[in-house]
């Protein structure tokens, strides 16, 4: 493996045509990160073929034990967000450890991080050592202040519009949308900067704040403009889809189904499937409204919804699914994760993954399919699994160098054991 | 403007060094899209400097009138998701119209779309005309079936874990997390494919399914592995943050604040600020647990939460904010969009935007800051605003060609008027 960090001159890219699902093969990234957003950025790029080396402090970062845990203490959360990376374990509290990481960053040429703790690993210091460095940093707030997805949710309006219409209190979303979008903005920003470097030779810093991602999205979806320009604040609408016809329905057997009629064709199909075409036509005539207008379907969502609720409530889920399945209507039954798990073996996104500490299970590959090829899931590393091979191959350290660093507590190998990986090539 | 579609040979890139906030300057993208995900992909790339041309059918796509609307009928949603693009209006139901768009796609070299309606505009047909074409396609399901964010939410488990602990029913999130993440995966996949083309000359198709994005994320966050490997299904935990200490608290004056103590330091700070250090120490001793362990703080979240709830409930929001503001604790008061709107003028992410049909308001620039530079918001186009200039500059059509196409109903200009933009350069 070459130690030349210039991705344009990367050996691997030139030696053989990259497989289609790995268009980023040859890209070398050092990741210094915790929690969701930055690890997702690194994993997304790793799944597209980049060589992503995750730097762990001795013993691993705090998020390595985040719930859910297996019986043996392996974090399924950490494992899920670090698939396909390599990991090295370095004492970041020591100057020698930080210098090793700085050298690795310089040789790799790209850093993605959510930490500003160590100035030696920051953009300014690293750029001194490599002028074309790309440094991608996530902060909580733009001013460098801290924030996490749940506090950003609170700060940006959505929890007061989420949840049942009669909620007295804010409802946070369990899907950490701001972490996820921030992670993917990091990946996008990194690739944009790397494109610029390929064409011009110039590096740069890319900064993104978690709160900015949420605010930008609130603006992009029209919420901020509406709050400034409209006299009537938006109200909670439960599981109704704002501005069109969509809501959930209970079936006679306790099932529940989400139904969305976005277009006139969806709407006509829905009425035909539920036998309500004539009733709704009579209602439209009596009210003097045209339900082929999306806005009218939303304005009258409650009465239309009650008519449809009667139909759904009178039959079991299977019958409703069968009727909807014969239409163009957008719909899905609600599933629990247990129900979802039973469907994974048939899904081509999924493959069996043997994750040390967790056991074998179905795990997703990359959702990005390149020319019909999809990168399958690869295991997450153990903390320190690749310490020896990375420092040897990337920095040229000898077995004696590694032994001394190990004795001095500057580096550690997986599980704290003398590295069994010393003489192992990466598969 | 050159009509050469090879981005690596793009005049603009070579003529002057791109401004740092526009690293994708020179990239030419044709967008054939509706709703959230694909427009967000295009806008994200436009905000990084790409020239994104949105193709509208005559009269505009259905989403151009999606709520919220201004009094004059302008969609703030559509405007928010199409900032900084150009737009042309073409009769896609006619072979001549489709051929114009195909030619534009071929000259531009990159297509991003969520439509498979017209085979002439699909990957196979366009690749025949340009072998190195990059075609990025979003579908609902992997098999090409339809789905939208709310039906994907239902299908993938999260609504049964969202909302108050005593909810009987699923709670959908108003933030369309799957639309947003899908849009950013599209942008990431597009840039990865374009990097591959820059290095090898090869184009390819990138396909992403909205449902796959949700499933992959459920796997990445550990939910799928947990459902397969754990005996105890995860339960709703309201506004508690799963696996750590975090929840919302009501204050004496009806305020509400989200508080997260992720680390031992956060936790100690929170106890000190609320005067509960000794009480919690006594509780820990009595229970025989160690609250410096994140897992223990989560397991005992209810009793710890009730102790803290007493403190928050006894004082007004301003006093709680002042106490928290002096600590490292992660927190934010919940804000409505009206409260948020009042804060926008002070936020450097925001700038005044004059949006035709909507009026002037504060709008977000790109959340991606490149070397300290941030792309400010640019107005969304009118449907057909750039019909004449794009067809003239990109396809070399003459004024007479344009007049004939206009007469024949194949193209239209903004508002259906003969294009005032005929002789206007893009600013």
TrEMBL record, chains A, B:
Keywords assigned by UniProt, alphabetized: Isomerase
Provenance organism: Nonomuraea phyllanthi
Keyword Isomerase attributed: yes
Keyword Thylakoid attached: no
InterPro entries linked: CoA-transferase_III, CoA-Trfase_fam_III, CoA-Trfase_III_dom3_sf, CoA-Trfase_III_dom_1_sf
Name assigned to this protein: 2-methylfumaryl-CoA isomerase
GO molecular function, one term: isomerase activity
Pfam families documented for this protein: CoA_transf_3
Gene3D superfamilies, A to Z: Crotonobetainyl-coa:carnitine coa-transferase, domain 1 (3.40.50.10540), formyl-coa transferase, domain 3 (3.30.1540.10)
């Amino acid at each position: 493996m070459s130690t030349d960090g210039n991705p344009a001159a990367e050996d691997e890219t030139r030696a053989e045509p990259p497989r289609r699902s790995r268009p980023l093969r040859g890209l070398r990234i050092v990741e210094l990160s915790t929690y969701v957003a930055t690890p997702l950025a690194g994993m997304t790029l790793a799944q597209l073929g980049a060589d992503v080396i995750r730097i762990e402090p001795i013993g691993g970062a705090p998020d390595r034990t985040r719930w859910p845990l297996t019986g043996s203490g392996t974090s399924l959360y950490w494992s899920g967000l670090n698939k396909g990376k390599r990991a090295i374990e370095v004492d970041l509290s020591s100057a020698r450890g930080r210098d090793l990481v700085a050298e690795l960053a310089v040789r790799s040429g790209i850093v993605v991080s959510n930490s500003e703790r160590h100035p030696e690993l920051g953009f300014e210091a690293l750029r001194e050592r490599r002028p074309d460095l790309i440094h991608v940093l996530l902060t909580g707030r733009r001013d460098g202040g801290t924030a996490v997805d749940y506090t950003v949710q609170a700060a940006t309006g959505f929890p007061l519009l989420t949840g049942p219409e009669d909620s007295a209190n804010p409802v946070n979303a369990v899907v950490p949308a701001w972490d996820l979008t921030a992670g993917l903005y990091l990946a996008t920003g990194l690739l944009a900067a790397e494109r610029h470097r390929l064409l011009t030779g110039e590096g740069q810093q890319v900064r993104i704040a978690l709160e900015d991602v949420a605010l930008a999205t609130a603006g992009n979806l029209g919420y901020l403009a509406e709050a400034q320009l409209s006299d009537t604040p938006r109200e909670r609408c439960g599981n109704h889809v704002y501005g069109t016809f969509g809501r959930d329905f209970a079936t006679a057997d306790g099932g529940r189904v989400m139904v969305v009629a976005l277009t006139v064709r969806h709407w006509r199909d829905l009425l035909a499937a539920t036998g309500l075409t004539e009733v709704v036509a009579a209602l439209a005539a009596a009210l003097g409204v045209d339900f082929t207008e999306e806005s009218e379907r939303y304005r009258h969502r409650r009465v239309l919804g009650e008519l449809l609720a009667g139909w759904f409530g009178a039959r079991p889920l299977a019958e409703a699914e069968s009727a909807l399945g014969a239409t163009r209507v957008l719909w899905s039954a609600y599933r629990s994760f247990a129900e979802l798990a039973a469907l994974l073996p048939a899904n081509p996104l999924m493959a069996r993954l043997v994750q040390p500490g967790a056991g074998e299970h179905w795990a997703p590959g990359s959702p990005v399919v390149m020319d019909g090829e999809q990168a399958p899931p690869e295991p997450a590393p153990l903390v320190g699994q690749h310490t020896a091979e990375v420092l040897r191959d990337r920095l040229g350290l000898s077995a004696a160098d590694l032994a001394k660093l190990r004795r001095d507590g500057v580096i550690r190998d997986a599980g704290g054991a003398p590295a069994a990986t010393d003489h192992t090539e990466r598969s």
